[in-house]
Amino acid sequence: MSFDSPLEPLPHAEPVVPDTVFLALGGNLGDVRAAFAGALRALEEQTDEPVACSRLYRSEPWGERAQPEFLNLVARVNWPGGVRRLLERCRELERAAGRERASESRWGPRPLDIDILLAGGMMIDEPDLTVPHPRIAERRFVLVPLLDLVARTRVLPGRMVTLHELLARCPDTGRVEPVSDGPWEAWRIDTAGDKPARDRS
How far apart are CA 56 and CA 184, in angstroms? Predict the structure, then answer.
């Protein structure tokens, strides 16, 4: 099932908050759910507030089609240490999950990929860090879960267009379908004993 518009936002969706960062997590090698869980737990240990997740989605590969389907989600993190330090932490978490950037193809298979999508209303343009993410408007598998967590009227910094409008114009026609019925909370089982949202896979 492909989405021309997103599902209804999840109950904890909210408008822009200055210190809030949105991260896209994806992977298609090994135990991707375990890689997501490990990264989310590690991030929450370093934040001032709980991490919130979108639904878990399954999507067709983007860029390099001849590879397994991906799992994707977006996480909202209140990160106190600055965006540059967050980028470093994301790379550490990718390596811990078994990712080797030096030996992989650009859009090829990987156990864990973490991208910084938005950081409050910040705009950053550095050689190894661009915020908002430079390809956010081209990726349905990013926009759909992101719109689980933000208001549909939220405007992308630097672009006088809402995220909902970006999804409507998105050139990516790949299939993106929800795997969980609600926020993906399975990663909390080991730490908080919460019941996970039901996965349909």
Answer: 6
